[in-house]
Write a structure and sequence with these properties.
There is one protein chain. This protein has 171 residues and is α+β, with helices and mostly antiparallel strands. It has one domain: Hotdog Thioesterase (Thiol Ester Dehydrase, Chain A), CATH 3.10.129. Helices cover 39% and strands 32% of the residues. The chain is built from seven helices and six strands. The strands form two sheets. Strands 1-2-4 form a three-stranded antiparallel beta sheet. It is globular and about 50 Å long.
Length: 171
């Protein structure tokens, strides 16, 4: 049986389906961010965050919370799709460094290379679980960095993760 998301992805393209459903979901919509484009295999996702009455703070610049939340979860969802069903992927930690106030629309580009995917699979095969550090910047239209974000993503093989969960429950 084909899942609804897979069926839609086949009909209109996975990137377009991802963009549409992510942008209309309440959990992402409220961040103020929007997916601008997503490649069909989701290895390249671009977002934007507009400065407007919903994202503007008391002093007229972008709320830091909006700046972070529009980025949260993107790498995790990308890796879930790129690695496939044999892996467990979780957001583990994040660090944000604000470099300058957001005074206009901001942009971010999430790229994951095939080489990185191959390396992740090799590392997980050898270690069963890894913490992967990925960086993304929020840039204004002139390319100035408003915020630098470091994400730590937990990745393991599904079989190892299930066994680990069983061991925790039996303690």
């Amino acid at each position: 049986m084909v899942k609804f998301g897979e069926w839609i992805g086949r009909k209109i393209g996975m990137g377009r389906a991802f963009k549409f459903f992510f942008n209309i979901s309440p959990m992402y919509r409220r961040t103020g961010g929007r997916i601008v484009s997503a490649s069909d295999n989701l290895d390249d996702i671009k977002i934007k965050l507009k400065l407007n009455y919903k994202t503007r703070n008391y002093v007229g610049t972008m709320y830091g919370g909006h700046m972070y939340s529009c980025l949260d979860g993107i790498y995790m969802v990308q890796l879930i799709n790129l690695l496939g069903k044999d892996y467990v992927v979780w957001d583990k930690a994040a660090t944000i460094k604000f470099k300058r106030p957001g005074t206009s629309t901001l942009f971010a580009d999430f790229k994951i290379t095939e080489k990185l995917i191959e390396q992740i699979k090799l590392d997980v095969e050898g270690q069963n679980e890894i913490d992967l550090t990925l960086d993304v910047d929020l840039l204004d239209g002139d390319g100035n960095v408003s915020a630098e974000v470091e994400k730590i993503i937990y990745i393991s093989s599904k079989s190892f993760y299930k066994e680990k969960q069983k061991r925790k429950l039996n303690k």
